[in-house]
Every structure is written in C-alpha cells, then in structure tokens.
Inverse folding.
C-alpha cells in the first residue's frame, strides 16, 4: 500500500515552526514585512495572493499589498520595485506572475534586490544555488525537498528523474537533489524513450503541465512519485500531471493533487521571508 505524502500537514507543521520563530524575533524587536505586488486581476493570481496574505497573518509577518491595474506601465512597476528595494522596513518583495503581456517579466524580476527576492527567481539566487552557495531557493522545489525529508525518504544515492526543465521548478529541483547526493536526470519534450528513462527512477518528480500524463507504464515498482502539476480534468475535478489512480498501487509513496506539493509552495515562501532576516 502506497504512502500518501500529506502536504497539508507538513506545510502546517512548517508554518507553526515559523510562527514560533517570528514570535521570538518580535521579542527582540525584529519585525518581518513582505511586499506583494499584483498587476491586473487574473483570477488564479488573486487566489494565490490571497493565500499568501493569509499565511503571513497566521505566522505574524506583516504584508503590504499593491494591487495595480493592468494598464500600469512597466516603468511604473519598476519604480515601485526600486522604492521597495530601498525601503529598509521591507524584507521580501514578491511580484506575482504572470504579468501583463506588455511587461518583460525577466527585466522586472532582475530589478528586485536579490536579498529581498523571496521567490528565488533572481539570477543571482539561481546562480548561488547552482554552485552551492547561500541564497533564496525557488519555493516549489524547496517544498518538494521538505516533503521528502519530513516523510523520512532517503535521497542520498537514489536515482532521481525530473520530468520538466522549467527555470522555476525543473532546473532548481535538479540542483537541490544534487545537493542531497541523488543521481539526477532531467527529461523534457525532446527526450527519447521517456518511459525507459522514468522507469529507472527511485524518485520521480513530474512538472510538465500535462494532466494525467504519467501512467503506471512510466513508473518503476516501488518508486516515490512527486506530482507538481495542477489542472482541471474533463469533469472539472482537480488533478495533476500524474494519473494518481493508475500509478497508486505501483508506488511506495506519492503526493496527491490537491494537498501535496501545492501547500508547500506558500510554506516555503514564508520560510524564505523569515530567512531574509539573516540574509540582510
């Protein structure tokens, strides 16, 4: 019987630990403030931003909210980011993606002070991760590591296959697994014989954006499967990149969708906010 890795419980544990840390910091007169910028009113973005505000409130982090119309110019957004960079009371800056099409996302992200880049997207933080130096780590991959470690899944020496090579998940995930002494393979749309590669995996991490793409034919008996995807199927039911019902009896442990990786992303964002105190 496969173990279902409970991201809701693990994320709640992390938030409680962070809440205690924030209380201790407040006793020392140290407050943490996160600035969240949303441009436009994309419904999914609004949900994410709302969840981040709730997490801040629970943990005791101050949150500043900037909800800008989608007619905002790139220069106006850059000006706000620069002001927040210079504001010593602001510890973390988060620009909710995606941005309107008239804005260059890379340019905006690169303008955020790396020491306040709690999303872990700035090239300086990505570079630090790649060479094993200290810096903010992208929240979803960091959350996956915590899911595995807190579920007592040994990573050292294991064969890890990551399906997907995005800058936000796939690539940083590979660096983090290397840091844990796993042997790592990254697969993508040009990978030949994908099933043959994924069936080697002791730990299979899937982030490809295709609903229920991974079936039991892709998975080794007894593997650990982490599903980063989130979609709605033909019946409007939330599902992931992995066909959960099809692979469940073949694996030793698996993350569900919802309730697996998703809650961890915000928990690790909060963790980055708390760590910002040390970085600064």
């Amino acid at each position: 019987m496969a173990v279902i890795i409970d991201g809701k419980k693990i994320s709640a544990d992390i938030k409680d630990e962070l809440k205690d840390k924030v209380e201790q910091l407040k006793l020392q007169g140290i407050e943490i403030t996160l600035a969240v910028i949303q441009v436009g009113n994309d419904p999914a973005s609004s949900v994410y931003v709302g969840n981040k505000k709730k997490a801040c409130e629970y943990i005791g982090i101050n949150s500043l909210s900037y909800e800008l119309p989608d007619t905002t110019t790139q220069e106006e957004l850059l000006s706000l980011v620069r002001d927040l960079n210079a504001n010593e009371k602001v510890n973390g800056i988060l620009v909710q993606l995606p941005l309107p099409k008239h804005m260059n996302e890379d340019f905006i992200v690169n303008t955020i002070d790396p020491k306040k880049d709690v999303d872990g997207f700035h090239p300086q933080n990505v570079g630090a991760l790649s060479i094993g130096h200290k810096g903010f780590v992208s929240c979803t991959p960091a959350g996956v590591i915590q899911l595995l470690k807190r579920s007592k899944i040994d990573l050292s020496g294991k064969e890890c296959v990551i399906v997907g090579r995005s800058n936000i998940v796939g690539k940083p995930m590979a660096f983090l697994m290397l840091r844990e002494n796993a042997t790592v393979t990254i697969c993508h749309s040009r990978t030949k014989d994908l099933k043959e590669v994924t069936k080697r995996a002791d730990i299979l991490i899937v982030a490809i954006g295709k609903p229920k793409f991974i079936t039991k034919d892709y998975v080794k008996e007894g593997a650990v499967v982490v599903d980063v995807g989130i979609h709605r199927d033909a019946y409007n039911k939330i599902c992931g990149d992995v066909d959960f019902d099809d692979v469940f009896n073949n694996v030793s442990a698996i993350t569900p969708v919802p309730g697996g990786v998703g809650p961890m992303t915000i928990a690790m964002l909060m963790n980055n906010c708390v760590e910002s105190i040390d970085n600064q």
Q: What stands out?
A: The chain has two domains: 30-119, 139-262. The chain has ten helices and eleven strands.
